Amino acid sequence: MITLAGISHHTTPIEIRERLTVPADRVAEVITAAHDRFGGAASLVSTCNRLELYLSGSHERDRVVAFLGAQLHADRELVAEHFHLRYGPDAVRHLYAVAGGIDSMVLGETEILGQVRGAFSATVGAGVDDALLSRLFHTAIRTGRRARAETEIGRHALSVSSIAVQQARARFPRLEHASVLVIGAGEAGRLAAEALVDHGVGEVVVVNRTFERAETLAADLGGRALRFDMLPVALAAADVVIASTGAPETLVTLETAREALALRRTQRDAPLLIVDIGVPRDFDPAVRRLPGVSYCDLDDLQAIADANAGLRRAEVDKVQALVEAETGQFLEWWEQLQVIPTISALTERADVLRQAEVAKTLRRLRLGNDERAHVSDLFDALSRAVVKQILHDPIATLRARGDRDVYIDATRRLFRLDEPAGPRDDADG
């Protein structure tokens, strides 16, 4: 039905994953080659933590390993050691779990759902899709959406940037009215500020010792830059502070923070959230004792992340239940798809024989034209009803059992469905 060959962070160390990658500009080439080699649809889910090839049909491990070795320009032994193959229901269940976020390094992360969608878009774009893989990926995307809509698997922040947004939204439900001060121009501060901008924060101000770097970051964030000596004024005007400078000593002392808060109170009465992700810390941790200040350093953020990870882990069983339900529905669809040709062949075979026997009986009766038409209609209706009744139970059993056990094979053998249809030689006996 489906063959999956894959590696991930669960089974393969990063130094090996780095060697077994497919660049984005080669994805179409690889899945087209897979289509040519295996004669069916192919899709490739390629992320920093996994590389998974999905193929329509069941294919021998040695052939798949040889193909991957050639495409990845890697030793066959290395590919054979690290790539795990899954077939049929196991492959379906795995993709649903991936889309649902319960197979990711960061439990419940949302990016993987877009990556699964992108993988199938590449398959369609390369023209190497079919009904089976189309159904598989569409239902996987549906499973991922259900997991996030019907459970809490993705609703508890784990990254610094997402926790910063979570904390800010808790204190400022209308972020469009909040002002963010970014102290420093490093990557960690940028990511947190970008997350706040993505959630619609009202204003962004950047302060950095090097003014040119502050200007560059401010332009990227759609905000404005201030010189470093304006830090107390900027602090007094801010609602959310993201600090990440890498300075070797405390940047904002307790006294500086008190002065900024005193100036702030003359302007407005609003809470101040400080997210200090500097190492060493940019603020004196004692600022957490000041009235109206909520202060989080990296240890605080890690504690929040750990608690949230626990909440996400508690949702895994719910997502797994969704995965099992969706897998069952897919397998039922597949089994029905498999049984339809047999049911069609059975009904066609029965109808060929029915029509032959009706015609033979009519020839024996030697009826006139008027009588013949009337009797023909009666025989046709009678024979159709009899055949329908006889085939009702076998067809109902086939629909209920699908291709499990030996039902399809037994039906095809018993009714000789793979032989040419026609009247039996001993039909007059």
Short overview:
With 429 residues, this protein is of the alpha/beta class.
Secondary structure layout plus pairing:
Elements: E1 2-8, H1 14-17, H2 27-38, E2 42-46, E3 50-56, H3 61-72, H4 76-82, E4 84-87, H5 89-99, H6 111-126, H7 131-150, H8 160-171, E5 179-183, H9 187-198, E6 203-207, H10 211-221, E7 224-226, H11 231-237, E8 240-243, H12 254-267, E9 272-276, E10 293-296, H13 298-313, H14 316-365, H15 369-401, H16 407-414
Parallel strand pairs: 5-6, 5-8, 6-7, 8-9, 9-10
Antiparallel strand pairs: 1-3, 1-4, 2-3
Helix pairs in contact: 2-6, 3-4, 5-7, 5-14, 6-7, 7-14, 8-9, 11-12, 14-15
Main features:
16 helices; 6-stranded parallel beta sheet; Rossmann fold; 429 residues; 10 strands; single chain
* Secondary-structure content class: alpha/beta
Strand percent estimate = 5-15%
What low-confidence regions span 5 or more consecutive residues with pLDDT below 50? none
Report how far the terminal alpha carbons are from each other: 45 Å
In the sheet with the most strands, the strands line up as 7-6-5-8-9-10
Mean pLDDT: 90
**Which CATH class of the largest domain is shown?**
Alpha Beta
Rg from alpha-carbon coordinates: 33 Å
CATH homologous superfamily assignment of the largest domain: Glutamyl-tRNA reductase, N-terminal domain
Which fold name corresponds to the CATH topology of the largest domain? Answer: Beta Polymerase, domain 2
The H-and-E topology, N to C, reads as EHHEEHHEHHHHEHEHEHEHEEHHHH
Shape descriptor reads: elongated
Q: Helix coverage percent of residues?
A: 55-70%
The number of helical segments is 16
Specify the CATH architecture of the largest domain.
Answer: 2-Layer Sandwich
Can you count the beta strands? Answer: 10
